[in-house]
Write a structure and sequence with these properties.
Shape: globular
Order of helices and strands: HHEHEHEHEHEHEHEHEHHEHH
Structural class: alpha/beta
Largest sheet: 5 strands, parallel
Bound molecules: phosphoric acid mono(formamide)ester, norvaline
CATH class of the largest domain: Alpha Beta
Number of helices: 13
CATH topology of the largest domain: Rossmann fold
Distance between the termini: 15 Å
Strand order of the largest sheet: 7-6-5-8-9
Number of domains: 2
CATH superfamily of the largest domain: Aspartate/ornithine carbamoyltransferase
Strand content: 5-15%
Number of strands: 9
């Protein structure tokens, strides 16, 4: 274990002071090492005390899992968080982001930002002198992807060569799954209705990160995409900020509900994942959500462990 710990620490030490804006910000080796450290923390084989560091949480959108897992992760690392929602700071009254980011850099040791545009997140990273972490944008959800692959690793023991099918909107969650999956050697199939496929530039980037370009595939038919796979994933049809499109999207996504029929085409040992919050009867049936195949709440718990590992790495606590 000592050798493994030293190896993990050596691989992760260059991340001290780094931002985490995209799954593609990590190397393949760093991604594997973060998952390893997260597992060690989960099994209580490792304790890390960062010594009273402070993480600022700037959340422009609602959050249960991401917010609370960051809060608990910091508490377990001996630090704390401060809530900096734009509604209660001067950001909401128009104070420029570049001033806010520089001021907060004098008070906090890192910032976790949840917002709409990836560009806004990069602006925080540009102006802050402390690490900035992506807590979800419209483009990516990289902390989520780390937890997702940790859950698959726990279920199967290894990741390389496994296949995950994501059924639904080709946006933030799908993008990070493709990028992170490529780094980990997991084949990713995305099944989206026409017009809701992942962005071509993200597909291209994921293929470049992968050892085998054929490991990223985009489908418009969920039945073809799910055949024989070991992990099946879905997410809401209308993401935060798209609530007014709910009924148009419900039409467009007809046939994309992860129900028993669809799941029966996957491997018999396939596991079911969902980042949550879930809409039973829309993207997933209540039966599949509650089935033995579901690892959804393990996946949710794993947010805590991967973010603890990430915080330890970027705050230099290894
Ligand atoms: N999965 C996820 O990010 O959940 P929250 O929106 O509750 O943070
Ligand atoms: N795609 C969803 C993910 C929520 C965690 C959204 O952006 O609302």
């Amino acid at each position: 274990m000592a050798t493994l710990n030293q190896g993990v620490a050596a691989i992760l030490s260059p991340l001290k002071g780094s931002d985490f804006l995209s799954s593609a910000d990590l190397t393949s080796q760093q991604t594997f090492a973060l998952l390893e450290l997260a597992l060690q923390l989960k099994k209580a084989e490792r304790r890390i005390d960062l010594g009273n560091r402070v993480l600022g949480l700037i959340f422009t959108k609602a959050s249960t899992r991401t917010r609370v897992s960051f809060q608990v992760a910091m508490a377990r690392l001996g630090g704390q968080t401060v809530d900096l929602n734009p509604q209660v700071t001067q950001l909401g009254r128009g104070e420029p982001l570049e001033d806010t980011a520089r001021v907060l850099s004098r008070f906090c040791d890192a910032l976790a930002v949840r917002t709409f545009k990836q560009k806004e997140l990069s602006e925080y990273a540009r102006w802050a002198s402390i690490p900035v972490l992506n807590a979800l944008t419209d483009l990516e959800h990289p902390c989520q992807a780390l937890a997702d692959f940790l859950t698959i690793k726990e279920a199967f023991g290894d990741l390389e060569g496994r296949t995950l099918t994501y059924i639904g909107d080709g946006n933030n969650v799908a993008h990070s799954l493709m990028l992170c999956g490529s780094l980990l050697g997991v084949n990713i199939r995305i099944a989206s209705p026409k017009g809701f496929e992942p962005l071509p530039e993200v597909v291209k980037k994921a293929k470049l990160l992968s050892n085998s370009p054929s490991s990223i595939e985009v489908f418009n038919d969920p039945f073809s995409a799910i055949r024989g796979v070991e992990a099946v994933y879905t997410d809401v049809w209308a993401s935060m900020g798209q609530e007014q499109e709910q009924s148009i999207r419900a039409k467009a996504f007809e046939g994309f509900c992860l129900n028993k029929d669809l799941l029966s085409q996957a491997d018999t040992k396939a596991i079911v994942l969902h980042c949550l919050p879930a809409h039973r009867g829309e993207e997933i049936s209540a039966e599949v959500f509650e089935s033995d195949a579901s690892r959804i709440f393990d996946q949710s718990e794993n947010r805590l462990h991967v973010q603890q590992a990430l915080l330890a790495a970027v705050l230099g606590g290894l």
